[in-house]
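Sample 3 of the quickstart, ligand 2-acetamido-2-deoxy-beta-D-glucopyranose:
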Amino acid sequence: MLTTSVIFLPCLTKIPWLATSLGAPWLLRRATQAFALSHSLHINAKLSFRRTLCSLPIGIPSSSGSEVCQMVQALKGGVDGLVQGVEEKSSIKEVKHILEMARRASSRREVLHTNFLTPPVLKESMQVLEKLADVKAIAQGGYPEAERCRISVGHPEELTSDPDIIAALSITGNFGFQPCSHGDFLGAILGTGIAREKLGDIILQGEQGAQIVIVPELVDFLMSSLDKVGNVSVSCTRIPLISLDYEPPRTRSFKTIEASLRVDAVASAGFKISRSKLVDLISKGDVRVNWTPIAKNGTTLKTGDIVSVSGKGRLKVGEVNSTKKGKFAVELIRYL
Ligand SMILES: *[C@@H]1O[C@H](CO)[C@@H](O)[C@H](O)[C@H]1NC(C)=O
Ligand SMILES: *[C@@H]1O[C@H](CO)[C@@H](O)[C@H](O)[C@H]1NC(C)=O
Ligand SMILES: *[C@@H]1O[C@H](CO)[C@@H](O)[C@H](O)[C@H]1NC(C)=O
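Result:
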């Protein structure tokens, strides 16, 4: 489990003072830029610690002499872990919010858009939205297999084509000697002050760098703010969505015959680990179904479910047929 400690620091004066006192001209520049931006941005100043995320909510400069800055220190897990831990708890609330938004959009004959959603929220929301009458929903993440997508909702007569709410950037630099991970790119981008939900997928491009998906209104900001990833100098250029270069994950699929569709049975066959080991992993919270940790061995699976086991990877439940003997023939797709 993720442990976080939150420290509130009363900053004596405004952000630029803080930036100067930290001896970081880049922070000063970014803090100033951020003042000019809408409140869709909050300042996430990534300090020199890779594992430390400091977020400084920016107030109106004249409101008071002392800003309050909140330093969230993720003791475990880094940026990805921090974001994920927070998201799990709020995902039900998020889905409800999206449904309300859909109803409102449909009745007012408007088209409304969400920010980028995480895969579990996206999946859950689309399933529920499909059942609503008078609501059409379109999910877009820049390319067909995108994990993080924005949903547009509206009345079927208003929402007739894909809204133009997704942009793509190519981040290039010399990564030949200094390979950077997904987390490095994510950290560098959030470090400019962009909120996580304004950012879609990050597609690594090996030595060339990465391509990212983002909301169009922050393209110019990111192009002028992002100059380094790790310690590699980078430059950003806007690219058409069609240029996103995504290689589908390598998979291997196979069939197994199981007496039940319980997660312990199916996943032990899928990951080739003993059932008792799997039960053990479930009790430690290391097994997730559709990105949510499961608490019971008895959880049953259905076609389309994604099972992930920490350290082992992911698999998807494919077609399920019943056999004459009352068992289940299950197709499993393992991501390599
Ligand atoms: C980046 O930092 C690493 C050590 O942290 C160093 O080995 C490498 O040479 C540096 N690369 C560049 C391009 O400065
Ligand atoms: C899971 O199964 C094991 C062994 O079959 C059992 O001891 C344990 O209580 C079960 N746990 C839950 C949460 O059902
Ligand atoms: C399920 O049945 C269909 C039709 O008979 C067959 O094509 C498919 O391979 C079966 N799938 C599994 C997982 O057994």
